[in-house]
Amino acid sequence: MKGNLTDMGIGIVTGGLSGVAFWSAVLPLDVAKTIIQTAPDKSSTRNPFAVLNSIYSRAGLKGCYTGFGPTILRAFPANAAAIVSWELALKMLGINRD
């Protein structure tokens, strides 16, 4: 039983940290995507890099990471649960990855 709890703890930490790392890398593109999707003027640029350049010019790096706190608060538990669920499903199906 102790080994299962250790495996679950490792899954929680690695899954959570991988989610944080992922969103730290792609959040600026997600911010640009959101701006493109919600733009009232449909003729505005649809180039995410042009949108990011505009954000960076106006608000700096901080503007590119708008919503970082809530995203990270969601990313850690969601990805931790996904990894633990995946590992549990493999065990329940009898799939050995060693």
Automatic annotation (TrEMBL):
Pfam families linked to this entry: Mito_carr (PF00153)
Signal sequence, start to end: none
Top-rank lineage group of the source organism: Eukaryota
This protein's UniProt keywords: Membrane, Mitochondrion, Repeat, Transmembrane, Transmembrane helix, Transport
Residue windows of the Solcar repeats: 6-92
Membrane association type: Multi-pass membrane protein
Alphabetical list of InterPro entries matching this protein: MCP_dom_sf (IPR023395), MCP_transmembrane (IPR018108), Mitochondrial_Carrier (IPR050567)
Localization annotation: Mitochondrion membrane
Protein name according to UniProt: Uncharacterized protein
